[in-house]
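RECORD TYPE: protein structure
NAME: U3 small nucleolar RNA-associated protein 25 homolog
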Amino acid sequence: QSEDSDKSSAESDSESEVEQVSGYRKLLATLKTSPESESEEEEDESESEEAEESEAEMDSKGSQETGEAEGHEEDKNDVPEEEEGTTDTAEQMLSQEQADGTDASCDPRHGVIEEFTDVKHESEFSLETNFMEEESEDCNADRRDSNPFKQHMDKELEEKEIEKMSTLPKTSTQSQWPRLGQVIFSSTLEKHKPLKADKEVDVKQLHLHKPLESTWPKVNKQFLSAVNKPIDSSFTPLQRELFCIMNSYRDLFYPERNALTNGEEIRHAYCLHALNHVLKANAQVLSNNAKRRDRKPGTDTDDHRDQGLTRPKVLMIVPFRECALRIVHIFISLLEVNDKKKIDVSNKKRFKGEFGSDPEEKPPNLKRPEDYEAVFAGNIDDHFRIGVAILQRSMRLYAPFYSSDIIIASPLGIRTVIGAEGEKKRDFDFLSSVEILIIDQADIYLMQNWEHVLHLMKHINLLPLDSHGVDFSRVRMLNLNNWSKYYRQTLLFSALQDPQINSVFNKHCLNYVGQVAVRNVPLTGSISHVVAQLPHVFRRLEADSVTSVIDARFQFFIDKVLPEYRDAIMSHTLVYVPSYFDYVRLRNYFKKEDLNFTHICEYTKKAAVCRARRFFLKGEKQFLLFTERFHFYKRYTIKGIKNLIFYELPTYSHFYSEICNMLKATDSGVDATWTCTVLYSKYDAQKLAAVVGIDRTAQMLQSKKNVHLFVTGES
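PREDICTED:
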């Protein structure tokens, strides 16, 4: 991760050391110490939280060392170790990754010593040697021209259209949908007109493959309310509009996913689409197998081009093992017509053991916000990957990647298979013919390591380096022409709008049918949820470009903001820093200036966190540097804050109100000396709108003056 590049285990104050670390070194450090899997386990957190709420306990925790020694101990504790031994360990682990990405050794910290691959069921799930059991009506329906799958995959693009998509800008149109709100359609090929929202959907008109037409209404019943009309009994209003877009095979970006409210209904909708796609694709191959078997000797035909250069068709990127567990459970439910017709699932027990969690492991006294509980439910290991093969009424878990239809993985899990340039054992051929890419909960990857997502996007839909035993007479021309990326559908779900996520959608989603993005603007902003009465001062800094804003912010902070807080009167000042690079830079500067401060980041050990919180609460340290990722992964309440500085606006808008409301944690009354200062630039428009609302944002970006807002409770 970008934050893993801190070299201050050697206590260097040099910022250049931080900035010059290679991406490869960052990855190695990531593998050694990922924020959510370090020694601060959930069990430890409960003890830590309880201890920190009791001052006497905090004293005993902090009595190990005193004075400067404690400060130095914190310095050592909160930095990921990058000594030679660490690097060697990570390199050895990387070198153990096998080419097919399925039989490598996992990091023991994640609870899996050796990665398992199912090799026993290879012939049973082979697409080459199996045939359609019966030529059903469903197969005939799949061949109809109105079938979205056939329409999309059988479309033959011309060279001039490919050139047009590669060179010309996209044209956009806007539409207002009942549930999604403002929807932006964009496409390079003009003939693809915007969709209209279906007010009602008959499941029989969706061209769902057997048995999904009958199982979907039962599986989705939990999300439906009595207000839905009988004809629309199988989809919620949100699912109906999302599936309408998915089923048209357009790229989709939906930035309003909420783990508490709509997360599961969205997961069900994209699982239905992914499974429908795989079943249709496999049915087409099996049906053509039978035709080729029954054809007369000597007859040769080119009509059976029905597959890609490699088998995996769907890649699902999710943040935690719990998400993969839920997806597989949805797949199983969708394939089981009734209790009597259970499907055969290979390695199900092993899967539940490795991807499930023990409810008793979580301490009952751990109190966190509802959204935290929803995001971090179940097994939250973030290093995994699993291949899934589906053939008619059977499912094979832990299938080798080249025998899988669906791959479910975390960004880190897929990253360690792809590897880095120069490594001997690396593989990304299995990504060559992915037809649907689903990236769910994209905002969480900003808190993990966004570089892994970018690395994946650079290696998907490339021509494979090896043939992997493919029958080229069955490969679609679009794959042979290296046009897969123009046919791939990308479904991107996030809890927020963010420039990095937008960039992936705009630059890497090239679907010839076009793109659909939901772009609603926040009317009020999270500042309305601040209950602590305090003045909010938004200070605008000027920067010439997005790249220069990092240095401009640092200079603005040390020249204009920090001098106002150096006085001892301005004690109990918390500096909230979203970027770890900025955190390291500020920490080095604070050390250099010999300021009285302490600091907490996602790598800080439990004891050091206790000490830092105690020093800050008692006023022994004037400043507390505090990273956004620590707040994301731990959500501790920091007591003793009197002055707040948001070095940059938070990634999650609700973190703004959460941090502001911490001022009331020490004293329920109102302190007339409380302050809150926020640094922003014109490049922070999206984050600013999420905090103060769109109307105030427009005014603040037009004016170059500082903006003073006073919030009086739930305003």
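COMMENT: Residues 1-113 have pLDDT under 50 and may be disordered.
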